[in-house]
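Task 17 of the worksheet. Students: predict the tertiary structure of the chain below and write it out as structure tokens. Keep your answer in the requested format; marks are given for formatting as well as content.
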Amino acid sequence: MNLLLLSRHIGAVTPFLEGVVAGWPRPLRIGYVDDAQAPFSDAPFVVEEYDALKGLGHEVIRITLRDMPASELDRALAGLDVVYVASGSTFALLEALRSTGGGRVLSDRVRAGLPYIGASAGSIVAGPDITPASLMDDPADGPALTSLDGLALVDQVVIPHADGLLPPYPPELIDRTLKTYGADYVLLPLRDDEALLIRSGQGRVVDSAPASRS
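Model answer:
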């Protein structure tokens, strides 16, 4: 599997794509899974994240899982070069993944070779369990959830924004999250300029500083 789990900034995206997409360089079809952003409508960070990814020069195709039957999602993923699971509410995202069977379809495609990029919530849900996000996000965003099991694409639970520089996630909240859940889960704190890169089963933290603007 090839995964890139971002905290916030997308600086590591292009180097990741160069290493995993056949026939590089060429314009890619990137599926943008936006379900985590449902509780936030047109909040500035939602617009900024989409625009930053689109600014890399690829075709970005919105995918809303809660609106797609599993068979339709499978066909959509088959036509992509990469899937990008956006930031927002981890609980809203997991509920969407569970509601139509999209989580199973997405996991199968990623395990079969579709490169996966997650950002914040999209990185957390790639792990085995999203419970450690309970202090950072609102569990009420996923009222229909009966299980908090993640996609289990990686063994760790990413804790994004670990530098405490993003106002909704101050250092005190990050410290409380690590202390509350660190004994029961394998947690990986990532600063906003870091990402976890997984290539062929091997993982390492890489730089993901903000992409420079031309």
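Marker's comment: Helices lie at 13-20, 44-54, 70-78, 90-99, 102-111, 121-124, 171-181. Residues 44-54 form the longest helix (11 residues).
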